[in-house]
Structures are given as C-alpha cells and as structure tokens.
C-alpha cells in the first residue's frame, strides 16, 4: 500500500506483524527493519500489530519478512 510520504519519492508501506505485545517488541521489530537498505523510518505499534515503514523505494516482502523473523516475530502481510 502506498500512502502519504515523508519526502518526495519515498514509499510508505504498512505491514501486519503477529506476536508483538509491548514496547520492547516494537523496538526489536523497528530495529531490524531499520537496518534494511533505503529505510528512513519505522513505527511499530504492538496494540494493532501494524508496522509503518517509509523507504526510498518499495521493499521486497522477503527482506521485510527476514527482518521480522530475525526480531522473533511473524510477518502476516501488507495491510
């Protein structure tokens, strides 16, 4: 899903992640996704399971899935 962007040319995507229950979970997921090339911001919300990612270009779903897996959670898909 492409939505409003922070800077011209950037892409915003919202992902659903299962298993997050607290601020530590949010930080773990945000930290791993932030390391992907081109990512400029990540906001994870445990209460909704949504992770909003702003990047220079669309990210490969498998790269996002691998980052979420590394944090110990499961990527359900895009919202």
List keywords for this structure.
single chain, four-stranded antiparallel sheet, globular, 2 helices, 79 residues, alpha+beta, 29% helix, disordered N terminus
In brief:
By secondary structure, the chain is an alpha+beta fold. Helices cover 29% and strands 33% of the residues.
Can you walk me through this structure?
By secondary structure, this protein is of the alpha+beta class. It is 29% helix and 33% strand. The protein has helices spanning 23-34, 61-71, and strands spanning 11-18, 39-45, 50-55, 74-78. A 4-stranded antiparallel beta sheet has the order 2-3-1-4. A hairpin with a 4-residue loop joins β2 and β3 (50-55). α1 (23-34) crosses α2 (61-71). The longest helix has 12 residues, at 23-34. The protein starts with 10 loop residues before the first strand and ends with a strand. Mean pLDDT is 92; it is low at 1-6.
């Amino acid at each position: 899903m492409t939505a409003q962007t922070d800077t011209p040319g950037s892409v915003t995507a919202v992902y659903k992640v299962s298993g997050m229950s607290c601020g530590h979970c949010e930080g773990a997921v945000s930290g791993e996704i932030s390391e992907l090339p081109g990512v400029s911001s990540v906001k994870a919300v445990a209460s909704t399971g949504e992770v909003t990612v702003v990047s220079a270009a669309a990210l490969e779903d498998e790269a996002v899935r691998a980052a979420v897996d590394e944090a110990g959670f499961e990527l359900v898909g895009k919202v």
